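Margin note from the TA: students keep mixing up input and output lines. Inputs are the sequences; the output is the structure of the whole complex. Example:
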Amino acid sequence: MTRLLREHPLIDAELDVAGRLVAFRWAGRREAVEVCNRWRVDEAWWRQPISRDYFKVVGPRWLALVYLDRLDGSWHLERVYD
Amino acid sequence: MAYAELHCHTNFSFLDGASAVDELVDRALVLGLTGLAVTDHGGLYGVVRFASAAREAGLHPVIGVEIELLDAFAPDPDRMVVPARRPVRGATGRATGRPAERSLDPIRAPSEGLPARPRPERTRLPGRREPVKEDFRGIGAGSRGPHLVLLARDATGYRSLCRLISRANLAGTKGAPRFSQALLADHAEGLLALSGCHDGELARRLRVGDRDGAQRVAEGYAAIFGGSARSGRGAAGPGFILELQHHLLPEDDWLVAETARLAEQVGLPSVVTNDVHYALPEGREMQDVVTAIRHGRTLETLAALRRPDGESYLKSEAELLALPPGDPLNGMNDPQTARAWAEGLVTAGEIAAACSVDLGFERYRFPGFSVPAGETPFSQLAELCNTGARRRYHPLTPAVLSQLAHELEVIERTGLAEFFLICWDLMRFARERRIPAQGRGSAADSIVAYVLGITRVDPIRHNLLFERFINEGRTTYPDVDIDFSSERREEVIQYVYGRYGTEHTGMVCNIVTYRARSVVREVGVALGFPRPLVDRVAKALETYDSVMVRRDLEAEGGFAEFFHRPADPITPMAEARGLTDRMGQLRLAGKPAIRAGGSANDKGGPGDSPASVAWLQSGRGTGYAAAATGAREEPPGMVDGRLIDPESGVLLPPERRTDKLGRPNHWDGGHSDAASRHAGSTVGLSNWERWLEFCARLDGFPRHLSIHTGGMLITAAPLIDIAPLERATMPGRVVVQYDKRDVETIKLIKLDLLGLGMLAAIDETVQLIEHDCAVCLDLDRLPEDISEVFRMLQAADTVGVFQVESRAQMQTLPKSRPNCLDDLVVEVAIIRPGPIQGNAVHPYLRRKQGLEPVTYLHPSLAPILSDSLGVILYQEQVMRIAIDVAGFSAADSDGFRRAMGTWRSSREMEKLHARFVDGCMAIQGLPLEDAEELFRRVAGFASFGFAKSHAAAFARTAYESSFLKLFYPAQFLVGLVNAQPMGFYPVEVLVNDAKRHGVAVLPVDINASSFRTTTEWTGRPGEPLPAGLGISHRPEPVRSPACVLPDPANRERWSAESAVGWGVRLGLRLVKGIGEEHVELLDAELARGPYRSLAEVIERTGLAEETIERLVRAGALDSIGRPRRELLWQLREVASRRTAGTSGRAAGRPLDLRLPATDAPELPPIGETERLGDAYAVLSLDARQQVIGIFRVALGRLGAVPNAALNEHPLGRVRIGGLVVTRQHPMTAKGTVFLALEDETGMVNVTLWPDAWARLRGVVRRHALLLVDGQLQREGDVVNVIAREIRSLPEVAAGVGGPGRPTGVRQLGYAGGRRTG
């Protein structure tokens, strides 16, 4: 089942030296992940610009969709696939 | 490091591409690309300007195209490659399977039993096919055929491209070429094919998992495009290459890997491209806007029709290498893909270098003019010149002979004999058919053109300079423009097609670009503004120039304030003003309201994080805005531009030019230097500002092609090998995809065959004079010194006269007082925007009026500048100064003139400057300061220079039309009215002017008017008007080959008898709804006899009911003898009986019981106000009286002065009333507006200074009948009223017992930026 998180909570992302996402931390739990796919969304520039790099990641527990908000550099969790 | 981009769209992809050619070339140079290909959709529209811009900038150009194929290469049973077409919106007939052709037989119609749809009343002309334009709005590329990119390797490849595109276009409909695989296979020679974007057949097959199919396609195309699959890369390499593209889309990683693997498998090279649609990242916004316009949607509803990210900008090799496939640290890609990616970048450069096309076609330019055996084109030309010279010159002077010899020598050396023969042949044809024609432009500098009959200006007499036309230093083609009577130009075009063959002849296209109104509407809709508001804004525009949109909207009360509050949402203001009900409230299902953006109370939307909301609320916008303003904004979580992870403390490597995904980091403001005005982001602007911004950016974007007004291309090789052709909207007409400038660049021969309304008017006038007055005029032999004509010109009595009828001309004529043809040449040349702006007008006028002495900087200038009283006025003068004073050669002097005109580069200017000054000092011994001063004057003039030859040609026509207006006013008026639309004034002004000159103008009458306006005998002054159809017999025409010299005795006779006895009968064509298709029927019915009843009119003319209603309201049926109200009462009834009886179309009509028409009740007769209103509504004029006439009593009570009385009225305060006939906003007048206000006594110029315009704009724009209070100024005979207060005349008049507003009177002239004179 998919859970779409309406609020897109902030997560803490761990990057390695090369800047790749290796793990994230949400609600006190750390999940080491591997990136399966990623893409960029640059949207709604005429309204409130959205500029995000999406990462579909898989870890031991979760398959999740996280993104880097390129406007402020924050990381968010958007979807969790149970 | 030698990447070249091989897949790039310019704005010539027509709304799929957001950057102009120049922007892309500039950016490519900045990024260090070695080459750039232009691959627009389905055509080569932009390649010529691209190739020359690129060459000039030192970038290697590659010419190509991206085509959309109709069918798949390999079998496609599941329609994976070519999706089944969705029914096209609006084409219900096709979608439901009904035949497109409507059956005319109601019994067999498939819709039997249903009420038939009304048939359009206006039947199509025979041979005119239904204009078919397919509607692709709302259909994304993914739902259409597969793409393929083709690049020309060499000249053969370019020819294949031209042929392929032409054949596809000719097989398809306008704007929808039909490229099939079979056609492609036939035209593969010399071409390189790239597999295309993710909508290419290969990518489509890979995406659905059809690897075998993809392999078949790759191998198949490789076989078609030549070269063996394993023969390596480069020029001799395979003709089919796989494209690798990565736009950071979800499936791109996979698709690149898969394509690279396939390439390896089949042994074909792969190449990296970026499917560029804009030069800079910010261009993405423009791309979205044009995509929205293309699909007729708003940005919000565009959904998947636009790309989800903005990665289709021109990227450097480093940026592309940093993308995921090329990133060695990227764990997702296998080494094979990374290698293919790196190699693909190199391959791109190699392929670009191997593709080289030279777009020079000098050797193909002459179609081979057939000459008699034993002659060469040159000997033939020389002979024709000798014959012509003997005809033109009596006697043949040594000056003529030596000039002729000189020109022939230059023509022989430059090999242009055939060119002259072609022109001569055209003029011969026109003469034989009696088609009025004359050459204009710089061709009139040539005595060869004069003696061949191409031009009508004697270069010896006018002291013209041949080198302005042709010289050996000139790289471009000499320009011959020939004006033909606008009514008969088509015959000449058909002759050219017949003479040189359709294969070798084509019309040059005209690239229609976006102008203010279309831009404002389309951008407004795309940005989601409500349509009523968009309409209102578009209507508020005064100009056609989209950069002036802001000025106009700010001036129009009600919009201005929106532009001054960029941060506020516009909702409350717009709503409060009643401009809109939904502004800012465009609620889409389930989506939040759209706000103006950047607002301080912005709470963000779903998906916004608290941080991003805070960020928005801080008003700082985004990195885009930071880049645009140059300010350095640092987002949270960053230190000195380095991203920091708060948990692990890991810092990103500093000084990275691109971020992890290969995109340049926007935070560093890295490309703000390259961001031009046309590239900055609009993020952070209010919606209104953004609207204006996009309007300004879209200005000048190509919109579609149309036929150039007269450019004909004639070539030696079949045209299809030289330039791509496509269908024009006009049936059977084919246009070249290149415009006038392109054709010049590729050095082809082009003739401008233009239609000139005045020639048609003069021709008809001369024929009428022959018919009516038995006088045969040969205007070629009209003496140049008829003093009455000059007296008329001096009095500025020039309404209708060619070139000197505009407001500005009328204001200067009384000051310049032309008294010979040379003065008229000056007048034509000087009253133009350039000289007005350059302040050249006043010195000349002062000298002409004797207010300042005529002086010359140096005696050597006297012979050159004596024509224009010492003022530099003509391009020929600049050249002659360069030759005679500064010692340039004739050829160099033309280069000097051009350089002065274009200010090409300061270095080049500096060189010429030094040479000029040195020359002046050495040759003529000018002191340094005088030489410098002369250069300054020459340079100052050059930007608005005008060829004297052109002015002389036009002045001659102006002189002839003045002559006709003066001596044959009735015939001239008929000529002018029938040649409409033309000239400066609406017909109303022409008619009233003629009436003031004593010409009787008779109203439109169904029993007397032909289709066209005609002359009608009205009897000598004092005689009663003859009844019925005019006169029983007319004087027999006497043909005389000689020009009748208007000596006083003869003149007396014409004035007394023939000329003055003629009035003008307005034609039925002036009534809206009557067009060319009715001409034969109406004229035949008129000849059959009078119409006696309304029913007869309806029956015999077959006109639409609305048209007959217009005829009644215009008074055209008054001669039936029934009151108008009664006719209108009966009209519906009688007309419905006819339509019901003939075609069984009874829907919405009263049941037809074949009862006799009911008698109208007693209806009051219509009043004069209503009659006038109706006449103005239908015809925009009234033959009986000018509309101000009915206000005269009220105007008298208000203390207003008739216009004719202003000449004697004391200066100072004055009040006048009148109808606005033209309104002008000249760009040169810095915001001043001029109105021509007409009353029954004449016309007067009203000037509104910018502050008055700002105040009075509303009333002036809304009302046509105005009461003006102002200041009367008089300078000599020139009268001007400076407006202080303007009110609506009917409103004020009503207060003093005047008539109400005649409802039909609208503003007659619309004059925006177009009329700058």
